[in-house]
Amino acid sequence: MNIIKQQETICTSSLSLLLMWVTDLATLMPELSTQWHPTKNLNLSPSQIKKSSNKKVWWLCDKGHEWKTSVGARTGKNGTGCPYCSGQRVAVGENDLATLNPYLAKEWHPYKNGDLTPNDVTKGSHIKVWWVCKIGHEWESRIANRNNGNGCPHCRKAKLNK
Fold this sequence. Notes:
alpha+beta, 2 domains, two-stranded antiparallel sheet, 28% helix, Treble clef zinc finger domain-containing protein, DUF4379
């Protein structure tokens, strides 16, 4: 089948290649294409995939973090970056609570959080966990709130009552 435009005939397969070239990731976002994982995407390259594709592929940031997400998630209006660098995922020894706030990690309750440890969460996490202050008070609070300076509520009440 041929498409006729301005008295020229273009083969539909050539048109498909031309359209892909104009909408592919490598052409439209060359900076992002540098984070395309060099080995984990088999034979697929940024020039073979559309910028808006929902296909999940592997990425590699400048710090060496690897993750899998769709091309569209990276290129959309609220495009995402590296989930480890942004603190959405834990990179032990880099962005975990134990590494970034060891003082706070010392107040992590030793058994009420199950298998979860300060190495498993980021300092900005909104999950609630159990804490124990240096004089033994126990309470539950969000990690992010604790990291922002919220301490033991029992000790705070005691100070206010003095």
